[in-house]
Amino acid sequence: MSKNPVQQRRGNALKDKTPTPAASLESGGKAARVGRNATERLLAIHQLISAKRYPNTARLSREFDVSQKTIKRDVEWMRVHWDLPIEYDRERHGYFYSGEVKQFPGVPTITEAEMFALLVAHKAVEQYSGTPFHKPLQMAFRKLTGQLDDKERYTLHDTDEVLSFRPFAPEATDMERFEIVARAIQQRRALRFMYRKPGEKNASGRHVHPYHLTCNDNRWYVIGYDVDRDDIRTFALARMSGGAMLSEIFQKPKDFSVAKYLRGSFTVMSGRSDFEVVVEFDAWATDQLRGRLWHSSQQVTELPGGESRMRMRLSGLEEVERWVLSWGTHATVIQPQLLVERVGSIARALAGRYETP
């Protein structure tokens, strides 16, 4: 009894012992490992066939910049090792599935918890809107969800209504400047730019060896060594004026650690002092504070009546001063005395400003 064309092709593919670019074979003819580029190619072929786009070897070879022979081997691999019902339509001049294929072979069904984590990752991408990271992150997410079956994709879309990220006052980032700074950090190139301190009108020139780029409270900062001031400083990208210029190559100190540098800061501004900061909060503020990590050194003690006391060790007071003031009358600084005096001075000034005539 003669074999049908599909059986004949599978039989020929099994006899062929020539290694293919789609995978390497273990002894005995078992599938061992599929290379990363080949896996992406096979996934793309599967997606095009599932979408009834009828791809053919000529089109696929152009798209992936490989030979048509490589594409044919990929298709045979999918037929033989994954038992996919791939056929060729001579009228449409392309491949199609002659039977139902619900999922890309080798991709496990993800759990509900993993699906929710994937949704969180998708929403988190929106926080990078306006930066060079946004488009690559969106593409990576589409690639991940492309491996889900129809039911999982529907579930992800349905769950989309239950979660969102709403960044408060996101910063409008200068894309060109952002890319130059990122490139300088990656290539270990010094930067020269004009910089204006908060509250000042005029900008001054800076010569900086950039070490690290960080985002805090929807604002981007670069941490680096200020050559002229012989000190490590933190610069807000939004306060750079004009264009940033790449300069000489530098060597980043082996002992520099971003985590160590920012250990004593409340957010991103590091100081040179050592303060034990103690703040007491009323019952209302305690409810807002409870369960949140404001600083790695924080120690929170519950007090009678629902109040609480928080202790932290900080290297500077500027950032925590603004944070304490944001709580209004719900927070009271106990120590250090310097912070007590600074917050008190601001409170008196505000009282005078809003005093009823």
What does this structure look like?
This protein is α+β, with helices and mostly antiparallel strands and 357 residues long. The chain folds into four domains: 5-97; 112-162; 175-259, SH3 type barrels (Roll); 275-353, Alpha-Beta Plaits (2-Layer Sandwich), CATH 3.30.70. The chain is 38% helix and 22% strand. The chain contains twelve helices and 13 strands. It has helices at residues 5-15, 36-50, 57-64, 68-81, 112-125, 134-145, 150-159, 175-187, 258-261, 283-289, 318-326, 337-353, and strands at 24-25, 31-33, 86-89, 94-97, 189-195, 204-216, 219-226, 231-236, 240-249, 275-281, 299-302, 308-314, 331-335. Helix 3 packs across helix 4 (68-81), helix 5 packs antiparallel against helix 6 (134-145) and helix 5 (112-125) crosses helix 7. The longest helix has 17 residues, at 337-353. The model is unreliable at 1-36 (pLDDT under 50).
